[in-house]
Amino acid sequence: MKNDLAKTLAKKYGTPLYVYDAERIRENYRRLHKAFSTRWPDFQIFYAVKSNSNPAVVQILLQEGAGCDCASENELKLAMRLRVPAEKILFSGNMLADADLKAGLESKALFNLDDTSLLPRLLKFGRPEVLSFRINPAIGKSNVHESDELAGAKAKFGIPWEKAEAAYALAKEKGLKRFGVHMMTGSCVTDPAYFAKISEKLLNCVGPIGKKLKIDFEFINIGGGFGIPYQPNEKPLDIEKTASLVVEIFKKKTKEFGLSEVKLFVEPGRYLVGDAGCLVGRVHAIKESYKKFVGTDVGMNILARPVLYGAYHGIRVVKCSNGTTDHGPRTTDLVETVTVTGQACENADAWAKDRKLPKLEVGDLIVVENAGAYGYVMSYPYNGRLRAAEVLLEKNQPKLIRKREAFEDWMSGTTLFQKG
Ligand code: LLP
């Protein structure tokens, strides 16, 4: 986003402000879709709604042909409100409550169970047409944080692969007939070979199960986890290479285990929307203490990732103060080492620590990069610092797609007791 546009948007909508670029979302979708579908035609992308659930963002991906991967009853309701057909909704939550199980059945979505123990509970309420289990292939990887490894021995997710056969055997015994299989590879992975390696593990697990239990798996869902670069010198994921390596394994293994008709599903979030969004914030206070702090309205409650995972986000500076011209971080600028903070009364709310940035003054804007995924969705109204507004750019034309949270929104649903 150009500096002038950041200034215009900040003036019009205020800060902090999430800004998404519709064209970039489309490009990301098309690149991913082309890479896989040209190699494995029976291919479908299910957008992981959890990464950015603004309905206008979801709609862009639906227009491109995506389905939805939903994690809760409310995400299912969102997909249904957007008229996503049931066969294009995956329901893949964690530690599901009975209400989730019932909602999943009512939606007729493709049901993906995270544990064998959920099956008898689900069957008390009804029988899904198609069922998959989330298998934990015993390896995991994350470029974000150890806590973000969504598979492997430490992950709370999925059924250990050694127990997968028993899960499918039970489902067959209970009379279910149509099956798929699911896994999550990890989070923000940028190594193409890793996707092939973990896919091979999954196929080596379910291939023999299919043969032994005479299950014709209808789809194999290799999950999300396709990474984007956050650090300045990080390389982007080579998606062509990723697709080529994964499909090579798919061809080999499906032949070996006789799974030729199987569909290949993926359910990415970050890859589609992460680099299509940024967060515009303003500098409100500069403080010379034992070190120099730049206080902005982008706090841990507005963008949780840095404080939660130590995640890095690039920061661009847009000078607005004292009438100087706009500039990004050029080498000729006066660079200072500062710690960028939010406004929360928490010492943890210092999210870019000892960062070299062009000299900032009160009134300047910062543009926090790669904030399209796990940004707004993970924000919360702490200290009465309410949630940001969201804007979608279509060919640089802004459209407000969520109003800034206001005092009355914050109070809504609360009850005041009379005095005495
Ligand atoms: N499918 C399932 C079942 C998932 O749990 C996730 C993410 C995805 C798909 C999408 O994964 P992606 O393609 O976006 O990596 N808050 C963390 C990321 C947590 C991911 C949770 N599950 C972050 O800000 O990095």
Termini, distance in Å? 55 Å
Number of DSSP strand runs: 18
User: Which hetero ligands occur in this complex?
Assistant: ligand LLP
Give me the CATH fold name of the largest domain: TIM Barrel
Overall body shape: globular
- Helix run count: 12
CATH class identity of the largest domain: Alpha Beta
Number of domains: 2
What is the percentage of strand-forming residues?
Answer: 15-25%
Mean pLDDT, as a whole number?
A: 93
- Could you spell the SSE succession in H and E letters? HEHEHEHEHEHEEHEHEHEHEEHEEEEEEH
* Corresponding CATH superfamily of the largest domain: Alanine racemase
Structural class: alpha/beta
* CATH architect. name of the largest domain: Alpha-Beta Barrel
Rg result: 23 Å
The residue ranges in which pLDDT falls below 50 over 5 or more consecutive positions are: none
Largest sheet: 9 strands, mixed
- Summarize the amount of helix as a percent range: 25-40%
Structure commentary:
The chain is an alpha/beta fold and 420 residues long. It folds into two domains: 3-18 and 274-405, Lyase, Ornithine Decarboxylase, Chain A, domain 1, CATH 2.40.37.10; 22-272, TIM Barrel. It has twelve helices and 18 strands. The protein has helices at 3-13, 22-37, 55-64, 73-81, 98-107, 118-125, 164-173, 192-213, 239-257, 270-273, 305-309, 407-411; strands at 17-21, 43-48, 67-70, 89-91, 110-113, 130-136, 159-160, 178-182, 219-221, 263-266, 277-288, 292-296, 315-318, 335-341, 350-358, 365-368, 389-394, 397-402. The strands form two sheets. Strands 1, 11, 12, 13, 14, 15, 16, 17 and 18 form a nine-stranded mixed sheet that branches. Strands 2-3-4-5-6-8-9-10 form an eight-stranded parallel beta barrel, surrounded by four helices. α9 links the parallel β9 and β10. α2 (22-37) runs parallel beside α3 and α2 (22-37) packs parallel to α9. The termini are far apart. The mean pLDDT is 93. The chain binds ligand LLP. The site of ligand LLP has 22 residues, from α10.
